[in-house]
Write a structure and sequence with these properties.
With 43 residues, the protein is an all-alpha fold. Helices cover 91% and strands 0% of the residues.
């Protein structure tokens, strides 16, 4: 997990907050899935 990845995730969530709460839930879910998929390769 890179600091840039964390920053990009925060930016995505912040931009989604302006568009609507439903999209925030979708994006957070996508980010969590992305991290779960990447974790085996990172370790």
């Amino acid at each position: 997990m890179d600091e840039r990845d964390v920053y990009m995730a925060k930016e995505a969530v912040q931009s989604a907050m302006k568009k609507g709460p439903m999209r925030v839930a979708v994006i957070i879910g996508a980010i969590l899935l992305f991290l779960l998929i990447l974790r085996p390769w990172v370790q």
